[in-house]
Amino acid sequence: MSGVGASTATGGTTARQRYGPWAVIAGASEGTGRAFARQVAAAGLDCVLLARRPGPLEALADELRADFGAAAVPLAVDLSEPDALERIREVTDGLEVGLYVANAGADPYATPFLDRDVEDWVGLVNRNVVTTMRCCHHFGGLMRGRGHGGLLLVGSGACYGGGRLLAAYSGSKAFELCFAESLWAELRGTGVDVLFQALVTTDTPALRELLAEGGQRPPSRLVAPADVASTGLAHLDRGPVYNSRQLLGLRAGTRRLRVRLVTRLSRSVFGDR
Ligand SMILES: NC(=O)c1ccc[n+]([C@@H]2O[C@H](COP(=O)([O-])OP(=O)(O)OC[C@H]3O[C@@H](n4cnc5c(N)ncnc54)[C@H](OP(=O)(O)O)[C@@H]3O)[C@@H](O)[C@H]2O)c1
Asked: Between 20 and 30 A from 255 (CA), which of 62, 68, 113, 237?
């Protein structure tokens, strides 16, 4: 058994020993984030739950305590704000965090780039790029020091290229992809796993809301959030990339090969820094 998919992780250690005792889930209040939180708690980890709205976070924290006996700390925080990590550290500094899930990250606008105030796009990039980078630096550094842990970045097939309505969003997801691949290469052998999980259209409240605003109906085939969470957690130790089945032709194995090649080239230039 591998990843966080069950109470037992690889090598006879428990998921809690390998990726715990605490997990931080960014964007936990609904959809895929909520599914990650429930599955992580079911695997024996305690959870810090992040999102902007306190009500749904508090309800989820109660649920995790009642259903799994997990400790759960809700924190209402806007991940687009420059002080997001400071706010997160106010509750996590006394906790041993072994898993960080960067889940919040959808485009709530689906608008051509020039048709919105640029500050909306800056907020999206701050949340997806800057806060994700800060949190991975902070939690990843502590995990490396302890010799175990996991960083899971929830991405999108949009990471592989741009298109209409995707300017800031696909750019931010491409950053997350390359960032996660590089971290994976740098953290190999340290006990810290890194995975970028590329999703396709998934049945989340955020997607349904966005479609409803435009008067559109959800497509008939949507991936279930619980399937996203179980797949991501099961593949956490098989990074750097997991592509949803529907991303045909984009092979995660090819990405891994490319990362290894780039790493070899970089070593030939910069040596073993
Ligand atoms: N749904 C899809 O079809 C789809 C497809 C491909 C990839 N993905 C990826 O899957 C992940 C989840 O997507 P999603 O559809 O569930 O929508 P989402 O808006 O990324 O996630 C919703 C969660 O994130 C929180 N959140 C959003 N913005 C936040 C902010 N600025 N600060 C703090 N929390 C914030 C929301 O709670 P609050 O509103 O209370 O803050 C909610 O808990 C994203 O990374 C997205 O890129 C989704």
From this structure: 113
Tell which wins on pLDDT, 269 or 46.
46
Flag whether the pTM goes above 0.90. Answer: yes
The residue among 38, 43, 51, 39 whose CA lies nearest residue 20 is 43
Distance CA 79, CA 56 (A): 16
Q: Distance from the CA of 272 to the center of ligand 1, in angstroms?
A: 38
Q: How far is the CA of 106 from the centre of ligand 1 (A)?
A: 5
Residue (of 173, 183, 48) closest to 105 by Cα position: 173
Instruction: Give yes or no for residue 30 CB within 6 A of ligand 1.
Output: yes
Ligand 1 pocket check for 60: Cβ under 6 Å: no
Ligand 1: does its nearest atom lie under 6 Å from the Cβ of 156? yes
Neighbours of 267 (CB within 10 A): 12
pLDDT, position 120: 98
SS (H, E, C) 233-262: HHCCCCCCEEECCCCCCCCHHHHHHHHHHH
Residue labelled with tokens 């593949």: 235
Residues 223 and 199: beta-carbon distance below 8 Å: yes
pLDDT at 8: 46
Query: For residue 57, how far is its CA from the centre of ligand 1 (angstroms)?
Result: 14
Average pLDDT rounded to a whole number, residues 138-154: 98
Q: Find all residues with CB under 8 Å of 147, minimum gap 6, and list them.
A: 190, 191
Q: Which of 204, 223, 219 is nearest to 105 (CA)?
A: 204
